Amino acid sequence: MAKTIMIQGTMSNAGKSLIVAGLCRIFKQDGFRVAPFKSQNMALNSYITEDGLEMGRAQVVQAEAAGVKPDASMNPILLKPTNDVGSQVIVNGISIGNMPAKEYFAYKKELVPQVQKAFKKLSDEYDIIVIEGAGSPAEINLKQDDIVNMGMAKMADSPVLLVGDIDRGGVFAQLYGTVMLLEPEERARIAGLVVNKFRGDKTILDPGLEMIEDKLHIPVAGVVPYMKVDIEDEDSLGTHLEGTERTEHTKAEIAVIRFPRISNFTDFQVFSIMPEVQLRYVEREKDLGSPDMVILPGSKNTMEDLLWMRQNGLEAAILKLEAEGIPVFGICGGFQMLGESLSDPHGVETASAAQQIRGMGLLPVRTVFEKEKTRTRVTGAFASVDGILAGMSGRSLEGYEIHMGETVRAVPPLSYVMESQSGSHLAKMDGCQRGNVYGTYIHGIFDKEGIGEAVVEGLMKMKGISGNVQGISYQDYKEKQYERLADMLRESLDMEAIYRIMGLTKNK
């Protein structure tokens, strides 16, 4: 059986995901086989594993930090919000349908055997499992039948580190209040307190640390500074997306439409590390301005997000830019929006959705939402690409598809790919283009080295700017960030104490 450590927080966004990722990298560096685990995750950022199963990207990031392949067992329950009161429920990588929140809370206890099975699978394969909680363990209205915080800690018989966010203020009240709202047997599981996102001189904090230890009789296991590391954020409805600043090196500006149900916003993260690019997220028509390219990203509710754009003026503004020759690139739901029509005869997206609405009319495609979800990884190459992004022509690509819709095209595809699903391989065509409008179902399409550079060079050429963009390996960049994260956590956490808490020594 693997040893465990669980990271819980006093609130959402206390920094649990980042600390789990950093601990995964530290344990990997120390020679252990380590895996992340989160029994239930609510996220619109998801990923398809090699065996065609869907999981939250936060656990994918943590698996990358651990140096292991993502496995759907690391996130056995994934909730993808479809609206403010309901979510698509994905169990062990497969969607079992949409549920209102009240229905899911009554149902989730039936999923305990699935959670236990997934955890045991990892426990048999790894030395250490770093478990992540969700929100706060002190949500007293949700504690009954809990399967993600203290309920999960009990199932795994795991010690817990409780993380408080000092950047929001009131960290001692957070820690004290959380502990005091727990049952005695739950408090006994908390083996250490962590103050996260600290800025300034730690000596000023020391008296408070001593007092909180005295009041709770729980040691402080570390004070973690506000870490400026560029690691993909866990997605939630409250996620704030930050773009990049314009600098003297900026040569191209890319605007990403931030839909209310934006999904897989990591698809264009590669542009955020390119000094030549200013990446902006736009929610209002007046903020769109005059970018050099517009990206319509994925959406968990494509039809409603298209209607949102139509109502707030963004659709009209994008159509005007396209008419002026500005390239528009749609990914997954964004690709579907660019077509002529979207039909939902089975009420797949939402029971209240219109059965059919018109698309933006920029691509000659029609989409029908089906009951079965496409979940597959792909490899392939771009076809002959016309227009401003012609530099992508023939370049190899890889990524994954997650969508309910089936799209029929009337023009040649954007790429030719090989689909890998359930051990089978199928050659097929993906996406399409017309003029300077491009659409694809492939998430991660810009990630492979050379593709993002080709896009930016095309935009520069459009503006009459000569020169090449320096090649960037996004994977190498991420590896450096994981190493930096681990270094910072080693300096700020009492790793010897954490090993003792788990019943391990650094050298196996």
Notes on the structure:
- The chain is α/β, with parallel strands linked by helices and 508 residues long.
- The protein has two domains: 3-231 and 479-501, 3-Layer(aba) Sandwich (Rossmann fold), CATH 3.40.50; 252-464, Rossmann fold (3-Layer(aba) Sandwich).
- 30% of the residues lie in helices and 29% in strands.
- The chain contains 15 helices and 26 strands.
- A six-stranded parallel β-sheet has the order 2-9-1-10-11-12, sandwiched between helices. The protein has a six-stranded mixed β-sheet with strand order 15-13-16-18-26-25.
- Helix 1 packs parallel to helix 2.
- The longest helix has 19 residues, at 474-492.
- The radius of gyration is 23 Å and the shape is globular.
- 51% of the residues are buried.
- The model has no long low-confidence stretch (mean pLDDT 93).
